[in-house]
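Protocol step 4 of 5: obtain the predicted structure for the target chain.
Materials: sequence only (see below). No template structures provided, no constraints applied. The aim of this step is simply to have a reference model before the mutagenesis design in step 5. Sequence pasted as it appears in the construct record:
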Amino acid sequence: MGIHGHTEIFQGKPVVNYDTNIGIADPIDTAYRLWFDFEAEENTLALLEHFLADQNAVKVTSLIIGVWNYECESNQPLVELLTSSSHKLPNLLALFLGDIIEEEAQISWIVQSNLSAMLQAYPQLEYLQVKGNDGLSFGEMKLDHLKTLIIETGGLSLSVAQEVFQAQLPALEHLELWLGTPNYGGDITPADLAPLLDGSIFPQLSYLGLRDSEIADQVAIAVANAPIVQRLKTLDLSLGNMSDVGAMALLDSPLIKHLEKLDLHHHYISEELTNKLTKLSLVIDVSDRQQADVYDGEEYRYIAVSE
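Step 4 output (structure tokens):
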């Protein structure tokens, strides 16, 4: 899974674009992607209808929905069809809504929808990945088997984050939130992360990603000594604009040293502190150091994904 490329491996399975001429040839060991090919006659909704009519749909465990129309307008019709057709996908365990690359649409253009009814229709889900914040809502999410939740945005709204923090996800092991920038709807402050960082929710969590953040330094300060870190194996603060301020908070934290992995790639940390971080007794990724831009005496540090 990359920032600029389509997903090629999903849940350990090769991804294949669904072809109506071939159908679902390998429902067990292949992850099928439904997407709007601008040169094809079928749109993604029509592809989904065709996919659901295949007799092998009942065996499918992994499904990816790519770009759904020219403007990436609301995917509500797709979500409604998935909801009403859950009986045709009884074994669906992994779902990605929005495998859309920037050549197809910027992340801020992607319009999601209210997913609450759909999630109620698939209580067996173990993996859920969503790209795009506009229009997104989870409602009162209750998924007893969900182990992985990934929300990729150029700006994550507080309302969506609060729905996640209030969700009943007792099996959740991997939580990845792309916080983004206020310029594209990211209005979360470090204080808003308190329900997550105090360790009172998601007792099985071992990976926490607070990625792509324009307030990466403040997030690092909030996380450095947060109770939740004591049970994490991986802390991922990558893709943001972290500077020496955030790096020092992490270096000074006794909790960070007990992690198995710390991911900070795409950062603005000085070489001196980068060297100190690499001496910690854990796996650490401090690759892709960025250089700040300076205009009229002001320093500008950019996150990896915004618009």
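Step 4 remarks: The radius of gyration is 20 Å. The longest strand covers residues 174-180.
Proceed to step 5.
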